[in-house]
Predict the structure.
Amino acid sequence: MHAVVRTEQGALRGARGPDGVAVFRNIPYAAPPVGPLRFLPPQPPARWAGEREAGAAGPTAPQVPYAPPLDALLPETTVPGDDYLNLNVWTPDPGARLPVLVWLHGGAFTNGSGSLPMYDGHALAREGVVVVTLNYRLGAEGFLDLPGVTPNRGLLDQVAALTWVRDNIAGFGGACDNVTLFGQSAGAMSIAALLAVPPARGLFRRAILQSGAAHHTHGRPTADLVRARLAEALGVEPTPGAIGAVPVEALLAAQQQLRAAVTAQPDPERWGEVALNLMPFEPVVDGEILRQDPLAAVRAGSAAGIDLLIGTTTEEFHLYLAPTALLDAVPEAALPHLAARYGLPREGLAVYRAGRPGASPGELAAAVATDWFYRIPAVRLAEAHARHRSGATYLYEFGWPSPAFDGRLGACHAVEVPFVFGALHRPELAPLLGDAPPQHLADAVRTAWASFAATGDPGWTPYRPGRRATRQLDAHPRTVLDPRAAERAAWDGRR
């Protein structure tokens, strides 16, 4: 059955499924960022006459697939084409006025798209919300800082998509004044940055940050180093004209070289902040679009009035160590060096040992890395927001362990995403989820996310620094106070 909706650009012809949910795909929210528009802020999309077919997924941002074994655990689908600044909408009732959930995908700012099958919005839409997923510019196209060129173009793409939602979502049955932005990994880090981006103010009322918070941005000195290293890899001058003349395929190859080089030799003098998180491309504190560090901005009140739901998985870093056997390869002698790199006091490592009797060096390293990269930033963002008491703050931890790799993958990075979207039984996700992921947990997570979007309350106690209520989402969801308090406290006073 067909469904037709009119937008400011023209009419769209989507499809209504047997569950009553209508879906509209490949809707352009900005002009193709190619040719003279490359490295420019997003420009308005063209209008069209008649009804535009919106039944198939559109082009995706240029990218290179994940390397094995991550490609099997995080399957991707890419579609070539220039018109990749597009979005998709699922709605249970175009005539209603429903809460809106807008998804920002992850992928380390170099991978991903809003049209991955895992992000199908049908199950969430059946909870009584309108779901939007979108693409944004990745890698150098979206986040390379170039002199004299608008910075943070990927963030501005996200702002443009949110502006499109504000101006058009009513036609799909969505309430433009009740928008919740949700995202995972780089998508969540983008949301944290958007909390500090003035043009994004007023475009969303709530936000859900899954496994990404406000600590992962580059300062201008690091951005300058990344630009210099990329130019070296390309064999060109580090100027907008020289880099802009490079074909996209060559740029993608050079991006891969950068990631490999920093992973092999994470020297801070050569890489700046990238030496710690190994992500050459991410939002830059440029003083123009992103005017200050996002955490400092939230502490100063930039997110006042916005409800936040923030969380992580229990064993985030196992995604990177268990499939590659690195979990067994970390030597005991490396642990003090690892702790020092992350700024964990020497006595802090003893806290982790005491709280995890029998843990191998690799498991201890994974726990420290998980907390530095994901959990502690989530706690710090919750604390910074909750202090204002203007806008609710909630914290969660997703703890269901994947059975993959004989259970060693655990509750790793990205394992919660199929639960949020109700995608447990997609065959391509079996390597990550196994044969029998718990449906009741997916139902609980999806209900909580939809409830938060509708009311600002996911169904558990708000976070306060004095109590630190945290919802444990596993086979038996429950609320606990300050989980692993000694490990959290070991990082106190450190960024």
Observations:
- The longest strand covers residues 174-184.
- The CA atoms of residues 319 and 427 lie 19 Å apart.
- The chain has three domains: 2-218+284-299, 220-277, 307-490.
